[in-house]
Design a protein that fits this description.
single chain; 126 residues; mainly alpha; elongated
Length: 126
């Protein structure tokens, strides 16, 4: 696949996918493993139900929170679906807040991986 825009979309939707379609198997597997592991830890910790920042807390913090969570691609869709049906005792988990931060960091790491895949597609990096 030579189209950098399609590589960016694949890389965003499936972490590590942009590298895999370009033949960078080891790099793609490592990126996919790290992002999905962080995502799974976040979900297991109750991070999908952590509200993060609301619009009332400040527009910039709210937008940063949404931007970071959306970076998970397919994982963001899963997290938003899971957040729609919260368990009544999920807020009692000691890891509740950490799960929310893990979810955000996984999304931000995926954005960096997406930029790396696009740089490889443009030939700026090997």
């Amino acid at each position: 696949m030579d189209n950098p825009i399609l590589i960016a979309i694949v890389s965003w939707f499936f972490p590590g996918g942009g590298h895999l379609v370009q033949g960078k198997i080891v790099r793609g597997v490592i990126i996919a493993s790290v992002v999905w592991l962080m995502f799974l830890i976040a979900i297991a910790s109750g991070g999908a139900h952590y509200p993060g920042f609301g619009f009332k807390d400040g527009t910039l913090l709210y937008l940063l929170n949404v931007f970071a969570k959306c970076g998970n691609g397919l994982g963001a869709i899963v997290a938003f679906v899971m957040a729609g049906t919260p368990s009544k005792d999920v807020a009692a988990l000691a890891t509740f807040e950490y799960g929310g931060r893990f979810l955000e960091v996984a999304g931000l790491i995926n954005y960096l991986a997406m930029l790396d895949a696009v740089d490889i597609a443009y030939g700026r990096k090997r």
